[in-house]
Amino acid sequence: MTGRVQGKVALVTGAASGMGAAAIAVLAEEGASVIAGDVDKAKLDGVVAELTSEGLAVTAIELDVADPEGWASAVRVAEETYGPLSILVNNAGIYRTPGVEETDQAVWDQVVGVNQSGVFYGMRAVIPSIRRAGGGSIINIASIHGIVGTEVGTAYHASKGAVRSMTKQAACQYGPENIRVNSVDPGIIETAIVADLRSQGGAIDELAQFIPLKRFGSAREIAKGVLFLASDDSSFMTGADLVVDGGMIAIQ
Ligand SMILES: NC(=O)c1ccc[n+]([C@@H]2O[C@H](COP(=O)([O-])OP(=O)(O)OC[C@H]3O[C@@H](n4cnc5c(N)ncnc54)[C@H](O)[C@@H]3O)[C@@H](O)[C@H]2O)c1
User: 9-236 in CATH: which number?
Assistant: First the structure.
């Protein structure tokens, strides 16, 4: 541990699994006090218990990012527990496969509600707290699917493109207040999302051959990117995309 976010207060969504769980561990190991939110509170409690048993400052809260009122209470709990927030990681997200004609209203509303509206509600609720902290860093987890297309996942692609675009807008609006806003665009990362696609019989593993590094990433490799953007090491970065994909979209 080198204390790269020592003394800062962070809120991470979707923290019960995958990249969110890795992000709360890495941020806490590097000195942050962390509020960990997830819609699956029982699972989150288990993840957080392990970290607190190692002496790390992490508090679990139930948070559905698609519920604006939930955000108000999350910020209140964060400030009462640790003080004003200076790091927000909008990580919670869901993937659904249907393409354009196959996407029904319920799938569209669900994916856009969590992935896109959730990021908007999060930034809107947390920015006043970051202002009280005197500035900070917001990291929105988008995806390479917000940059390039695939044959499926219309609502997912749409929502992730929106996250990248909102990130740049917010960066322009809040730069003068020293609030930096960047996105991380993961490639294929070994988490529950990928495990689900594998269990549905998808030929996901064949995609590794198209990645220059010839493998999928780990949740911790994404968390290291989050740490960089959360810390002062990225002090002149805002409105940027950090693509962490093993070179997947660099190859022709
Ligand atoms: N795994 C990949 O290959 C990949 C690639 C690119 C981007 N991403 C993005 O990375 C982020 C994290 O994904 P992951 O792979 O770690 O997924 P994951 O399924 O392992 O974890 C997602 C977590 O979010 C939580 N969640 C779902 N809906 C929520 C809601 N409404 N409110 C709060 N929490 C909610 C889930 O309970 C779960 O704990 C997502 O935004 C995802 O779209 C994933």
Answer: 3.40.50.720
Phi then psi for 12, rounded to 5 degrees? -125, 130
Q: Other C-beta atoms within 10 Å of 178: how many?
A: 15
Catalytic residue check, 174: no
The string of pLDDT tens digits covering residues 120-131 is 999 999 999 999
CB-based contacts of 199, cutoff 8 Å, min separation 6: none
Q: Where are the domains of the chain?
A: 9-236
User: What separation in Å is there between the alpha carbon of 111 and the centre of ligand 1?
Assistant: 11
**What predicted TM-score, i.e. pTM, was given to this entire model?**
0.98
Tokens of 30: 């590097």
Ligand 1: nearest atom to the Cα of 142 = 7
Note whether 22 and 219 are within 8 A (CB): yes
